[in-house]
Specification:
The protein has a single domain, classed as Lysozyme. The radius of gyration is 15 Å and the shape is globular. Helices cover 57% and strands 9% of the residues. The protein has a two-stranded antiparallel sheet. It contains 7 helices and 4 strands, in the order H-E-E-H-H-H-H-H-E-E-H.
Length: 151
Amino acid sequence: MNPNKVIDLAAAFIKQWEGLRLKAYSDQGGRVTIGYGHTGGIQIGDEISDEQALEYLEKDIQFALNAVSRLVVVPLTVNQTAALTSFVFNLGASNLQRSGLLRFLNMKQYSNAADQFLLWNHIGLYVSPGLTSRREAERALFLKDDNEEEI
């Protein structure tokens, strides 16, 4: 598997879902966020450039990809890896680590694992339409054959 292809695919996918905000804001979950969904060390009032947003994105994707590589012990396609990288980018490595998604995946139950994406669509106790759509898109990417045209 080509890691650069995974990173490029994950970046395009994440950009589509996160959007770009150059001024810090509180997201729906109450986390202070900037750029393409970056949350580390940010305070309300912070502003960044387009270039800084891309640097944060690259760093955050690499962190998420490293977590996927560490936690998943079965072979993955480029699309599966990109979908899982988006999941970790959005929800964190600890949520993947404790998920049924990872348990099914590491038992090579790929179809059951794919269905687990759909369970991660809540902000607190409430179903988020935006997260529902994102999880459906991650599931579809996870199930997409790498030979098919990419997003």
